[in-house]
Specification:
Blueprint: E1 10-13, E2 17-21, E3 28-33, E4 36-39, E5 44-47, H1 51-68, E6 75-80, E7 83-87, E8 90-91, E9 94-101, H2 105-109, E10 118-128, E11 137-138, H3 140-145, H4 151-173, E12 177-188, E13 194-197, E14 205-209, H5 220-223, H6 230-253
Helix pairs in contact: 1-6
Length: about 250
C-alpha cells in the first residue's frame, strides 16, 4: 500500500498494526492498521484485504465518542484510510476487559456461572499482555508486584474502563446491538498520566444484534470458523464493514 504520509522511524509492529514515529514531532506517532486478523495468540492468521481501513474507521469513530464523553485518550485524528495519528505514550502491558454478559473464556474459568449472566456494574478483569504466557489473568496485588501500576492507577484504569464501556454500550444500544464485553489498553503520557490508548475496533469487543449470539458481528466469527475459506473470509469482512458503518452513525447522530 502506498501512503501519502511521511513516516519517521518504525517503532514497533504487532499482529495487526505498525507504529511509526512522526518525522518532526517527538510527542506523536502514526498507527498503521494492517489487513491481518489473528486468533489463538497468532496460531490462526489470515490476510483480510480492506480490514485495515475498516479497523481504522471504527477506531476513529469510537475514540471520537470517548472524547465527547470527556475520557482522556491518545487519539488525534484519521490522516489516511488506514492511518491514525496519536499521542506517543508508554503502553501499560495490560488488557483491561469489561464484561456485561458472561460468555466465552469467562465461562471456562468459572464453570459455575451460566452463559448470559449479566454483571451490573460491568465486571472488570486485568490480563498481562504476553503471548508466551497466553495473557494470564492478574489481580491487583500481582499488578503491583510486577511493577506495572500503582494502586491508584489500577483503580483509575478500572473506573475509566467502566466509563468507556458504558459510553459505548449506550451508543450500541441505539442500534439495538448488545455490547457483551470490551477490551481496552492504557498508555502513560510524558507527564505520567494515564490515557486510553492503542485501538478499539471490531477485534476489541463482542457485539450481538438484538442480544442474539448467533448473529454476532465481531472477531469471534473468525475464531469459531471450522475452516478458514475465501467465502468465509468475505462474509467476515462484510461484518467488519457493517460495524464500521454503524459506528459512523455514532458521529452523525452526535
Amino acid at each position: 500500500m502506498t501512503y501519502r504520509t511521511t513516516f519517521g522511524e518504525k517503532l514497533g509492529e504487532g499482529k495487526t498494526k505498525i507504529v511509526y514515529a512522526h518525522p518532526t514531532r517527538r510527542d506523536l506517532v502514526y498507527l498503521v492498521h494492517k489487513d491481518r486478523i489473528t486468533a489463538g495468540d497468532g496460531a490462526r492468521a489470515s490476510e483480510l484485504p480492506g480490514k485495515g481501513e475498516l479497523a481504522c474507521r471504527t477506531t476513529s469513530n469510537v475514540f471520537y465518542v470517548l472524547e465527547q464523553e470527556g475520557i482522556d485518550t491518545h487519539y488525534i485524528g484519521l490522516v489516511e484510510p488506514a492511518v491514525n495519528l496519536v499521542v506517543r505514550c508508554e503502553m501499560v502491558p495490560l488488557e483491561v476487559v469489561m464484561r456485561r454478559v458472561a460468555t466465552g473464556s469467562y465461562l471456562k474459568r468459572n464453570p459455575e456461572v451460566s452463559e448470559g449472566q449479566r454483571f451490573d456494574p460491568p465486571l472488570v478483569e486485568f490480563f498481562f499482555k504476553s503471548d508466551e504466557l497466553h495473557d494470564p489473568l492478574v489481580d491487583d496485588a500481582e499488578i503491583q508486584r510486577m511493577g506495572l501500576a500503582e494502586p491508584a492507577e489500577i483503580d483509575e484504569m478500572r473506573d475509566t474502563g467502566r466509563r468507556v464501556f458504558l459510553a459505548l454500550e449506550r451508543a450500541w444500544a441505539g442500534k439495538r446491538v448488545t455490547l457483551v464485553d470490551l477490551k481496552i489498553e492504557f498508555g502513560r503520557g510524558e507527564d505520567g498520566s494515564l490515557m486510553v490508548a492503542d485501538v478499539i475496533d471490531n477485534d476489541s469487543w463482542r457485539l450481538w444484534p438484538d442480544g442474539d449470539k448467533n448473529r454476532m458481528l465481531d472477531k469471534q466469527v473468525y475464531r469459531d470458523m471450522p475452516e478458514v475459506t475465501d467465502s468465509a473470509l468475505r462474509a467476515l469482512l462484510s461484518k467488519y464493514a457493517q460495524v464500521a458503518e454503524l459506528t459512523e452513525d455514532f458521529i452523525q447522530e452526535d
